[in-house]
Amino acid sequence: MNIVLEGEFPNLNQEISHAKSHFAIYAKYKKEWTWMVELQCRTLPPIKEYPVSITFTWVTKNKRKDPDNVAFAKKYILDGLVHAGILENDSRKFIHSIQDFFATATNPYVIVEIKKV
């Protein structure tokens, strides 16, 4: 299953800034991004066979952000997939491996590829 999520997700540095300002601001921000993923994925069928391997392809506007900062957003994506009912859980019992790739384009997006192991 391939899922394309439009937009550029927040990076780790942005999240640290939110967390330092006030815990409630970070919680609100995380909830909003998780909800955005859930909304984009609600109509997709659930994964029935586990464990799975997940590959993220992060397409950003430029190469200025470090890969680890960009890939931090997988937390929102995995939580959103669980909330949408696509994944049963995001624990290691269900997810065997996670891999990240990076690219650039004018319009940012993330491709999430989920495969049975």
Task: Provide structural commentary.
The structure is a single chain. By secondary structure, this protein is of the alpha+beta class. The protein has one domain: Holliday junction resolvase RusA (60s Ribosomal Protein L30, Chain: A, 2-Layer Sandwich), CATH 3.30.1330.70. It contains 4 helices and 4 strands, in the order βααβααββ. The protein has a 4-stranded mixed β-sheet with strand order 1-4-2-3.
In short:
With 117 residues, this protein is an alpha+beta fold. Helix content is 38%, strand content 27%.
Structure class = alpha+beta
H and E order: EHHEHHEE
Give the assembly state of these chains: single chain
Instruction: Record the strand order, biggest sheet.
Output: 1-4-2-3
Portion in beta strands: 25-35%
Largest sheet: 4 strands, mixed
Helix-strand layout with pairing:
Elements: E1 2-6, H1 12-21, H2 23-41, E2 52-60, H3 67-71, H4 74-83, E3 95-104, E4 109-116
Parallel strand pairs: 2-3
Antiparallel strand pairs: 1-4, 2-4
Helix pairs in contact: 1-2, 2-4
Kindly list the characteristics that best describe this protein.
117 residues; alpha+beta; 60s Ribosomal Protein L30, Chain: A; 4-stranded mixed sheet; 4 strands
